[in-house]
Design a protein that fits this description.
Distance between the termini: 6 Å
Radius of gyration: 16 Å
CATH architecture: Roll
Shape: globular
Order of helices and strands: EHHEEEEEEHE
Helix content: 10-25%
CATH topology: Thiol Ester Dehydrase, Chain A
Strand content: 35-45%
Strand order of the largest sheet: 3-6-5-4-1-8
Number of domains: 1
Structural class: alpha+beta
CATH superfamily: Hotdog Thioesterase
Largest sheet: 6 strands, antiparallel
CATH class: Alpha Beta
Length: about 140
Amino acid sequence: MKTLESSIEIPIRFSETDAMGVIWHGNYLKFFEDGREHFGIKYNMKYLDFYEKGFYTPIVKTDINYKSSVYYGQKIKVRVILIYCASSKIIFKYEVINITTGEIAATGSTTQIFLRVEERILELNKPPFYIEWEKKQAWKKIT
C-alpha cells in the first residue's frame, strides 16, 4: 500500500463542545475536512484546483470511530493519510490525537469520487491531471 501523510494541530474552541464540555461528535467531520484542506495545501492539490479543472470531489462514504473524549481548551492533532487507489476515487484515513493526553480520540475514513462540474456526472476514470499529480508524489510504502 502507498500513502501520503500530513497533520494539523487544532485548539478546541467552546463552540465545538457540547453541554458536557466534550467535542460534539459531529465536529469530527469538520476536523477531517480541516485536515484534508491542509493536506491539499501541503501537496499542492487544493479543492479549488479540482474545481478549476472541472471536477467536484464529493464525499460518498464516511466512517468515524470514537475512542476517548477531548475537552474544551485541549488541543488535537489530526493526522491525514491519503491511500493510493487504482480506481477513480480518493480515500483518506484519519487519526485524531488528543495532544494534551496523548490518547487517540478518534479514527476514521472518507471516500470521495470525481464528479464532472458541467454535466454533474460521475467520472469513471481518474482525470489525467490527477494521474499526473499522483506520479509526482513521493509515496510512502506501507506493508
